[in-house]
Amino acid sequence: MKYLCLVYCDERTLHTQPESPEDTECHAYAEAVEGSGRMLAAEALESVSSATTVRMRNGKLSITDGPFAETKEQLAGFYLIDAKDLNEALQVAGGIPAARVGSVEVRPVRELNLSPQ
Q1: Would the CA dihedral through 22, 53, 70, 109 be positive or negative?
Q2: InterPro entries per the record (predicted)?
Q3: What is the span of the domain harbouring residue 36?
Protein backbone atom coordinates (compact mmCIF):
# COMPACT_ATOMS: atom_id res chain seq x y z
CA MET A 1 0.00 0.00 0.00
CA LYS A 2 1.19 3.52 -0.73
CA TYR A 3 1.69 6.06 2.05
CA LEU A 4 2.57 9.73 1.82
CA CYS A 5 4.84 11.00 4.58
CA LEU A 6 4.49 14.79 4.72
CA VAL A 7 7.40 16.47 6.50
CA TYR A 8 6.48 19.66 8.40
CA CYS A 9 8.84 21.99 10.23
CA ASP A 10 9.34 25.62 11.08
CA GLU A 11 11.57 26.52 8.14
CA ARG A 12 12.96 29.56 10.00
CA THR A 13 14.55 27.28 12.61
CA LEU A 14 14.95 24.02 10.70
CA HIS A 15 18.73 24.24 10.39
CA THR A 16 19.46 26.14 13.60
CA GLN A 17 18.36 23.70 16.31
CA PRO A 18 20.92 21.38 17.95
CA GLU A 19 19.07 18.29 16.66
CA SER A 20 18.63 19.68 13.14
CA PRO A 21 19.61 17.16 10.46
CA GLU A 22 22.27 17.96 7.89
CA ASP A 23 21.43 17.54 4.20
CA THR A 24 23.88 14.62 4.00
CA GLU A 25 21.97 12.76 6.73
CA CYS A 26 18.68 13.36 4.93
CA HIS A 27 20.12 12.10 1.64
CA ALA A 28 21.58 9.03 3.35
CA TYR A 29 18.23 8.16 4.92
CA ALA A 30 16.40 8.60 1.60
CA GLU A 31 18.97 6.30 -0.06
CA ALA A 32 18.44 3.71 2.69
CA VAL A 33 14.66 3.77 2.18
CA GLU A 34 15.20 3.51 -1.57
CA GLY A 35 17.59 0.60 -1.04
CA SER A 36 14.91 -1.21 0.98
CA GLY A 37 12.59 -1.09 -2.04
CA ARG A 38 10.00 1.06 -0.27
CA MET A 39 10.74 4.45 -1.88
CA LEU A 40 8.46 5.56 -4.68
CA ALA A 41 9.43 9.27 -4.60
CA ALA A 42 10.88 11.87 -2.24
CA GLU A 43 11.56 15.56 -2.64
CA ALA A 44 12.42 18.55 -0.51
CA LEU A 45 10.47 21.69 -1.26
CA GLU A 46 11.66 25.25 -1.78
CA SER A 47 10.84 27.83 0.90
CA VAL A 48 7.19 28.54 1.61
CA SER A 49 7.86 32.08 0.37
CA SER A 50 7.98 30.62 -3.16
CA ALA A 51 4.49 29.09 -2.85
CA THR A 52 1.49 30.13 -4.90
CA THR A 53 -2.04 29.17 -3.87
CA VAL A 54 -4.75 28.53 -6.45
CA ARG A 55 -8.47 28.50 -5.72
CA MET A 56 -11.44 28.13 -8.03
CA ARG A 57 -14.60 29.74 -6.68
CA ASN A 58 -17.82 30.21 -8.63
CA GLY A 59 -15.97 29.53 -11.87
CA LYS A 60 -13.33 32.19 -11.18
CA LEU A 61 -9.66 31.45 -10.69
CA SER A 62 -7.94 33.17 -7.78
CA ILE A 63 -4.14 33.09 -7.54
CA THR A 64 -2.41 34.27 -4.37
CA ASP A 65 1.30 34.49 -3.65
CA GLY A 66 2.26 32.53 -0.57
CA PRO A 67 1.12 29.44 1.26
CA PHE A 68 -2.44 28.27 1.79
CA ALA A 69 -2.52 29.21 5.47
CA GLU A 70 -0.43 30.91 8.12
CA THR A 71 0.90 28.13 10.32
CA LYS A 72 3.70 27.54 12.79
CA GLU A 73 5.14 24.75 10.63
CA GLN A 74 5.39 24.54 6.85
CA LEU A 75 5.41 21.62 4.45
CA ALA A 76 9.10 21.04 3.80
CA GLY A 77 9.04 17.89 1.70
CA PHE A 78 7.59 14.43 1.29
CA TYR A 79 8.32 10.75 0.93
CA LEU A 80 5.96 8.58 -1.10
CA ILE A 81 6.57 5.03 0.04
CA ASP A 82 5.23 1.54 -0.45
CA ALA A 83 4.73 -0.23 2.89
CA LYS A 84 2.96 -3.45 3.85
CA ASP A 85 0.85 -1.63 6.45
CA LEU A 86 0.53 1.51 8.55
CA ASN A 87 2.94 0.21 11.18
CA GLU A 88 5.71 -0.19 8.60
CA ALA A 89 4.94 3.27 7.18
CA LEU A 90 5.17 4.76 10.69
CA GLN A 91 8.56 3.14 11.20
CA VAL A 92 9.84 4.69 7.97
CA ALA A 93 8.38 8.08 8.93
CA GLY A 94 9.93 7.91 12.39
CA GLY A 95 13.35 7.54 10.82
CA ILE A 96 13.07 10.67 8.68
CA PRO A 97 15.74 12.96 10.17
CA ALA A 98 13.52 16.07 10.11
CA ALA A 99 11.08 14.32 12.47
CA ARG A 100 13.49 15.29 15.28
CA VAL A 101 12.76 19.00 14.80
CA GLY A 102 9.35 18.92 13.12
CA SER A 103 6.64 16.38 12.45
CA VAL A 104 5.77 13.83 9.79
CA GLU A 105 2.15 13.27 8.85
CA VAL A 106 1.54 9.77 7.44
CA ARG A 107 -1.47 9.28 5.21
CA PRO A 108 -2.57 6.34 3.08
CA VAL A 109 -2.83 7.16 -0.61
CA ARG A 110 -6.32 6.59 -1.96
CA GLU A 111 -6.09 4.51 -5.09
CA LEU A 112 -8.26 5.88 -7.86
CA ASN A 113 -9.65 3.62 -10.55
CA LEU A 114 -9.07 5.67 -13.70
CA SER A 115 -9.89 2.93 -16.17
CA PRO A 116 -12.95 3.53 -18.37
CA GLN A 117 -16.11 1.77 -17.22
Answers
A1: negative
A2: Dimeric_a/b-barrel (IPR011008), YCII (IPR005545)
A3: 2-108
